[in-house]
# Entry
Amino acid sequence: MAYRVLGRAGPPQPRRARRLLFAFTLSLSCTYLCYSFLCCCDDLGRSRLLGAPRCLRGPSAGGQKLFQKSRPCDPSGPTPSEPSAPSAPAAAVPAPRLSGSNHSGSPKLGTKRLPQALIVGVKKGGTRAVLEFIRVHPDVRALGTEPHFFDRNYGRGLDWYRSLMPRTLESQITLEKTPSYFVTQEAPRRIFNMSRDTKLIVVVRNPVTRAISDYTQTLSKKPDIPTFEGLSFRNRTLGLVDVSWNAIRIGMYVLHLESWLQYFPLAQIHFVSGERLITDPAGEMGRVQDFLGIKRFITDKHFYFNKTKGFPCLKKTESSLLPRCLGKSKGRTHVQIDPEVIDQLREFYRPYNIKFYETVGQDFRWE
# Structure
């Protein structure tokens, strides 16, 4: 009677129970297959559905029996010969960086090359300004410090010298600046032995003004040195200039140039006017860019005149919040020199200047 109330003909048959068990097992299997499809990765270690590695690192306590036969699909996981051990979740894959990035922290891109161009002189002529201005150009990478390789560190070898250089792409020029090269007797030959195609930049300035600037810098470091007049002359009454003093000797440009012309043609040497670099920085830098064989990227829009320092500075760019001016050591107020001493030195330099103009084919108008 009870079986008829429930609407059944009799107790459940074993065949029907087997069908119910089969349906339950099939449903469980489908659930497992779907989970595996969504979570496990392909042979490359990346899920094509989810776009990132999503592998089963290890079974949980509740699902140990269900997943105990699943293999980890991470190709960096343990090999068959290694024991499988629980590991931490995989770290996030870092986003790829743009090739060509030169910011610190980015992958080392480009190659360290020996410089194709050198600013070889002269001290207190404006070499730092030329270096800082040309570094704005995207096709130029320059060493910020002076390596003094061809005068003081030549014994370290070219491999050491190359290791100092910034990394450059094929389209970029590597450049460095050491003003003392111009007056170093061995420098032209050593640079020629490195590469006879090296382009040379010489920044020159009125030799009298340059000597006073040189002395002013030295005085700031050694306040007890003799006076400018005392160092400039062996006998001021007779007008005998002391050419052994480095500040005087550097300004005899044509004598130093003779050493360079023994190894390099004049076409491979570019002379920058230190005076025009102040009054017309865009014009002077335009000629430097032409000499280096790069487009005129640096123009008037990059400069403004700093009245306090008395020379042009670089305007702020997208990559810098502030304008870029040369440091405190640049633009010092020169010491006062007796006008008669200045006149005597001008007369001393006159024949050297005229010969220099004739040699390089430019009149710098220092008289």
Observations:
- The first strand starts at residue 111 and ends at 112.
- The radius of gyration is 38 Å.
- The chain has 13 helices and eleven strands.
- Residues 1-12, 32-107 have pLDDT under 50 and may be disordered.
